[in-house]
Amino acid sequence: MNKRLTLKQRNAIVGLTFILPWLIGFLIYYVGSLFLTIQFSLSKVIIGKTGGYTTSFIGISNFKNALLVDPNFNQILVNSIIDILIDIPFIIFFSLFIAILLNQKFKGRAFVRAIFFLPILLTAGAVQSSLQLATQHIMGGASAMMKELTPSSGVNVNYFLGIFQELGLPSVLVDYVTSLVSRIFDIVRASSVQIIIFIAALQSIPNSLYESAKIEGATSYEIFWKITFPMVTPLILANVVYTVVDSFVNSNVVELAFNEAFTNYNYGLSAAMSILSTVAILLILGLITLFISRRTFYYN
Amino acid sequence: MPISIIKAYVKKFDKITIDSNTLSKYYGKLKGWLFTLFKFAILLGLSYIILGPLINIFSNSFFSSEDVYNPAVFMIPIKPTLNNYHLALLRLDYFSTLGHTLIYIITITLIQILITSMVGYGFARFDFPLKNLLFGCVIITIVLPTHTIMLPLYQHFRNWDLLGVFRLLGMKPINLLSSETPMYLMTIFGTGLRSGLFIYIFRQFFRGLPKELEEAAFIDGAGPWYTFFRIMLVNAMPAVITVAVFSMVWQYNDTFYSQLFTMPTDHILTLRLSTIQATLEFIDEIKDPMVSQLAVYAGTILIILPILVIYLLMQKYLVEGIERSGIVG
Questions:
Q1: Which residues of B touch A122 (CB under 8 A)?
Q2: pLDDT by residue (tens digit) across A137-188?
Q3: Is the CB of A140 inside 8 Å of chain B's CB atoms?
């Protein structure tokens, strides 16, 4: 070879070889599959006996079926989206709060931290369903106990709920709070990765900021809103994205699409459902990212 | 006013200030105590929310079939039995399945670390055309729900064909389903379970390392691969540990891929647990779901144990690792 490559060109080639495995995988498994999914969603897929398949173009009737004919899809999609939207603000503030508590020094901190990280280990499907059952045991026990106690002690939960409503609080707020309380088990379990990320974020805040704030006489309330909160905002976005994706993977929509494909063998409809839900979730993510990234503070 | 009176006044004020000082000290102490109490109560309550169901599962796994229907039994069984564990061990074929699962997740994790660190390094340190666009594609793989591409993946591995080579040679495509091979393949090509996230973590970490390291290596005559394996990867230990823990835990708990690729149940422990109730019903003829659930509880405990041990061993490094692996800023 007469022409020798410059250092820059050589570096570019080396860099490409480093990312080559991912690039191949991305092209085959993601780009190729995405196109196939879109093709499936626009056609009638007939599955052959040997596992092959033939497709014939039928336009958007799969999407029509998913949205207008299928009895469950609409409802399940809307419900999961509402659930996600309700959960996000609470999960974020809850995990930030817990991260702040767990970042302070106290006896047995390692132990408490281990408890809060524990749900990461319990995400397997079968383990989840056992946990669900056990949770029902506990909740059932609690509500039975309450029923028995109500006549003797005079404590009536419905009465307190009534007070809340008569306080003149907007009923949306009351509904929000009660729906959160009823799903507290799920929410606490869904926020352990977020807690870890927030703890790491808190530890990366330089101590000198706090010291100077204290010398200037700032109260801890001011320190939180003027230092801690702005410094963790970049991670709030990351946590929101993680929360949305994670809660969506475990939602009923995925299950529905999965069953449609592998028990009813209706590939077209299943692909249409997947695409619809993915578009919905990407829209939500995009809106939230726009909303948050304007308010995000970058230290450097 | 005579000076003596003023002096007396000043003395009085001195006393008062001292008093208010001690008062505010007590007040501060009280506030501190109350705050600690509040914190303790919250942590206790939330810990119970997490641990409660687990404790329930644990105690139920020792119940005998009579305890289930005895309304007087709460948490502590009257006739404790190890029978549930015996059944679960037998029907899960625990040790053999666990062995297979461990081999599987450890291999996957090693591949995952190797490939994602390479890709992350490539994105962090080299300039090549379309780099930002390609990195955007990595972010897309993080955000895009996997079920969008599940059907094509299923079909792809159902009729696996090496870039059309088999068809050219007149051979039939291979069916790679019902084995772990699809997962190995996807992981090797950097698109395994949450590989995008790991690539992101490694990229952020490598960007934070000083460039002088590589310059020194380059001047000493080390090639890029030598530099990567002997210098950069060794320095990236915190990121490696973070990725290792998450990869192992997530792979162990993954049921989406193992269901999609219909992996053999005698190789994947968590998948096997989801079928154990049916097995108990047919082979052991335990028709009562309340009783067979006890064995499922025992199985749940058995499944949590190994990953708990791995996690406890590596927990200490985890938060440190995340902090230093540069996800944060």
A1: 54, 253, 304
A2: 777 766 666 666 666 655 566 676 677 667 777 777 777 777 777 778 888 8
A3: no
Verify that B93 and B158 share a domain, yes or no.
yes
Examine the domain organization and report whether B138 and B207 are in the same domain: yes
The number of domains in chain B is 2
Contact B57 A53 (CB under 8 A): no
Within an 8 Å CB–CB cutoff, is residue A249 touching chain B? Answer: yes
Q: What is the C-alpha to C-alpha distance for residues B288 and B296, in angstroms, rounded to an integer?
A: 13
Mean pLDDT score of chain A:
82
In a domain, B142, yes or no: yes
- Specify the higher pLDDT residue, B49 or A147: B49
On whether both B51 and B145 belong to a single domain, the answer is no
Q: Are residues B136 and B181 in the same domain?
A: yes
- Provide the pLDDT for residue B128: 87
Instruction: Indicate the residue of A24, A234, A245 with minimum beta-carbon distance to B189.
Output: A24
Instruction: Judge: B150–A19 Cβ closer than 8 Å, yes or no.
Output: no
Q: Which of A276-290, B188-202, B284-298 has the lowest mean pLDDT?
A: B284-298
> B131 — alpha (psi -120 to 50), left (phi > 0) or beta?
alpha
Alpha-carbon gap, residue B300 to B58, rounded angstroms: 9
Question: Domain map of chain A by residue range?
Answer: 72-250
pLDDT in tens, B131-154: 899 999 998 888 888 888 888 888
Q: Do B122 and A16 touch (CB under 8 A)?
A: yes
Range of the structural domain that residue B197 is part of: 83-324
Residue B122 confidence (pLDDT): 92
**3-state SS class at B158:** helix
Judge: A26–B141 Cβ closer than 8 Å, yes or no: yes
CA distance B75 to chain A (A): 10
- Cβ <8 Å between B150 and A258: yes
Quick one: B11 and B149 in the same domain? no
CATH number of the domain where residue B301 is located: 1.10.3720.10
DSSP code string of B1-34: --HHHHHHHHHHHHHHHHHHHHHHHHHHHHHHHH
- Contacting A residues, span 84-103, partner chain B, CB-CB under 8 Å: 98, 101
Q: What is the DSSP string of A109-149?
A: HHHHHHHHHGGGGG-SHHHHHHHHHHHHHHHHHHHHHHHHH
Over residues A43-56, the mean pLDDT reads: 74
